[in-house]
Amino acid sequence: MYPTVADVLALPVVRGGGPRVVAGAEGLDGRVRWVHVAEVADIAHLLKGGELVLTTGIALPDDDEALARYVEELAGVGVTGLVVELVRHWSREVPRALAEAAAKHGLPLITLSRETRYVAVTEAVNGLIVDAQVAELRAAEQVHETFTALTVSGAEPDTVLREVTRLTGQPVLLETLSHEVLAYDAGSADAGELLRDWQARSRAVRTGERTGYDPASGWLVTIVGARGHDWGRLILVCGEPPPHRHRVVAERAASALAVHHLLAADGEGLERQAHRAVLAELLASPVTAPELAARASALHVPLTGRRLVGAAIRPRLTGVADPPGAASAQPVLRDLAEATALATRRARVSALVGCVDDTSVRALLSLSPQANPRAVLRRLAAEIRQARGSVPVVIAVGTAVTSAADAGRSLTEAGHVAAAALRQDGEPADGYHRLADVRLRGLLHLLGDDERVAAFAARELGPLLARDAASGTRLVQALRHFCEHGGNKSAAAAAAHTSRTAYYQQLARIEQVLGVQLEDPESMLSLHVALLVHDVVARSNDTDHPME
């Protein structure tokens, strides 16, 4: 907010006096809080620090010891600089004792070779200070208005951090008290470098106050929390001591984040949001950028040098009273995500956990190369079921991979396996499903996006679906019972809760509509596969009831 000594020397009214820095040049970047004209030597006790003292030297002593004491007292109270006019007392240069004392204390000593109107200097410098103070007040008002609007609107953390970077020009990060990066805005800095070795660097920074600057790291750190519950730290990467305005920005941003946290108490937490963002990018991109790996590492989930296993956890709601529909799907999945995250902590497994769609919770497990994946997954499956409580879940895993670039494939495979396993009764012995456990149904889920597979199902079942739609019959359901019971008509009729006579009539009508013989093994196999494909396609297109 205040001009430096160098700024003062650059003013025309000072340049006209022929200024020369005699000593203490290293202090020219000191801030000038005020300008004070003083001729007497006994002046230090009247000063507060930050003043630029102007003198003609006319009342200063010529004694070397007294001059040294004079400079020592000025430096002791924090004077920013001393300007001496060489006209009335000293004409060519100041005494050596004065210059040596200024050099010893690092106090800028400037001489003026020509007579200078000190009143003009004070007016010019104080005008700079007042202008700076007005600008600071306007900036503070802008900060106040900006973060008040963000707080009232319940702005997301990414939006708040973006404003911090815009107002300060510095990178900013939001982390938990356990040093997991929840959100960040790197600005013009390199995000990968910003997040490199984050945990180790962050643990080393302790300021001992709610808002403090750590000179060693160049970080301005503000505690985030409300109602006596602190849960995070906002870190402004400054590189040098920040101005007061940056502290205000950091504190107002921390307040906005704390309010958002309170308002979103019933929604998805910041940790889940951060995990979800990384999982979504792993699923969407075939190439893992270094920044993404750094983000995962900053969340305590390293992706390099590890065995990565994708997992999908879906609630099994068949038979549950009042199963949720689309409108209430997200709260169910959020609860399941928190339960899964709790289970990973109990099982001591590093994992990204989040909801990336409307059907399941995804997790990417990061295991050490020496870990036994089967033992870890069995323990984790047991912990998930215990944490979830009364609602049963389907737990599915993908193939273990060793490259972050393949993590998306393992996550996708786990999702397909979970969708296929929903129609199976019982649980595998290990407590989780793999692709090998869902067999043909799992294969069809993997191929569900292939148009040729969908065309095959439409070709096989099209006439039957059209008949049901036009006449209100349930021939497709009758065919499903027939195939699921391996062609056993009696068992199929019992499963359909239909008399054998009526059921046999339905089978005859199916053969007539499709022009096939159901007793033919190949016909039954083709129709069964077509039914499975029809289920896969219908579920992938069903956006109205994602939790079914």
TrEMBL record:
Q: Which Gene3D superfamilies match?
A: PucR C-terminal helix-turn-helix domain
Q: Which Pfam families match?
A: GGDEF_2 (PF17853), HTH_30 (PF13556), PucR (PF07905)
Source organism superkingdom: Bacteria
Similarity section = Belongs to the CdaR family.
Q: What is this protein called?
A: CdaR family transcriptional regulator
* Protein species of origin: Prauserella muralis
